[in-house]
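Supplementary Methods S3. Complex input for the zinc ion-bound model.
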Amino acid sequence: MADETYSGEFYCVKCREKREAQGDVVVSNNRRMAKAVCPECGTKLNRILGKA
Ligand SMILES: [Zn+2]
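Predicted complex, serialized as structure tokens:
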């Protein structure tokens, strides 16, 4: 489950734009989520990838 990474588009709520970022994939409540940090403003980004 761990040690998986995702790179792609995340929506940054602070920039209100999509950002290319790379982050870790985590599983929460049987959903795979990617977590990254916005390269522009440093805000944490989350993206739901789907079911685990
Ligand atoms: Zn941002």
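The mean pLDDT is 92. The two ends are 9 Å apart (CA to CA).
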